[in-house]
Amino acid sequence: MPISRLGLVVHGGRPEAVSGARTVREWCARRDIGCVDIDVWQGQGSRRGGREEVRAAGSPDLIVTLGGDGTFLRGARIAAKKNIQVLGVDLGKVGFLTETAVADVERALDAVHAGRSECEERMTLTMRASKPLEMPSDMEQILCYGRGPALPPPPPREAGPDDDSWGVALDVTALNDIVVEKLARDRQVGVGVYIAGRLLASYSADGLIVATPTGSTAYSFAAGGPVLSPRLRAVVFTPVAPHMTFNRTVVAAADEPIALRVLPHSGRAAVSVDGQPRGVLDPGDWIGVTAAPEPLRLVRLTAADFYGRLRERMRLTDAPATAADGEAAPLFRPGGPLPEDVRHLRLPPPPAQH
């Protein structure tokens, strides 16, 4: 994919990210490629939504993030709005989303520019609500303490004919999760949960997470949810510290919406999108979370190795059985031709080609 304009999302608080961004700008300058910083804010000031950032950046055809998975998510919410590919540059930790080390960023950009990269699509979420979300001024400082200015509440997106029964379609793109959680430390939030138009249960909990398969290794995992392959299309519902016997995750199909209504006896609840507070719900308000029509397009330089990253991130190589097992992986590629009954499987390339 020849690059004509590149957008940068940089973790300005990390010197290695700032240095890596300088390397990217120099690479662009040598090739006469436009390069612009996006989603940049410092100190007190307002922040812009994803579509505004894309317009301000001149609609780049590649977004590069330098930071960890949090910085990557900032770039992802911008990239997904306009079907832009995103390349995540890691700064020393094993990330589930980032693709290349900062020391290899020039080599990675060369590969993308020369068409030697692949594009991996990840499912995202969007949202409807009973009313437009708002961030009360008395809540913003509490919810965003230590984070800097909040993102603006998501605006309504263009929709079909007005029909209040379907709620307000909001311009939201979540790669990991959408969360409804309590505001008061001493009081859980009461929420009715509906899946595919049918009541599942009423929960009294610290929070409720609706996640993508990509987000299954984030907050949902920390709350006891399962790990899903990011190649799946599914919606994961996980309660956080529920005060009830049924505390299990429910995995719904991608075409089954999940709605969360704040019950009359509950206090107010906060709504976060990929960890960013975006509004507050009052008793009686609801949100509906659905699979978004547009995926996120990740740049991949080598064959995806989600399970290898999972093993490294979770330090699963420390298991005693791992050290004792020196054999090749079963059902991998022993070297001979593929048998007929396994040719339909998705297998990584042989080690020599990986």
What would you say this structure looks like, in words?
By secondary structure, the chain is of the alpha+beta class. 19% of the residues lie in helices and 29% in strands. The chain contains eight helices and 19 strands. The strands form three sheets. Strands 1, 2, 3, 4, 5, 6 and 19 form a seven-stranded mixed beta sheet that branches. Strands 8-7-18-15-10-11 form a six-stranded antiparallel beta sheet, with no helix packed on it. The longest helix is centred in the N-terminal third of the chain and has 16 residues. The mean pLDDT is 86.
**Secondary structure tally: strands:** 19
Distance between the termini: 21 Å
User: Would you identify the regions where 5 or more consecutive residues have pLDDT less than 50?
Assistant: none
Oligomer: single chain
H and E string: EHEHEHEEHEEHEEEEEHEEEEEEEHH
Tell me what portion of residues adopts beta-strand conformation. Answer: 25-35%
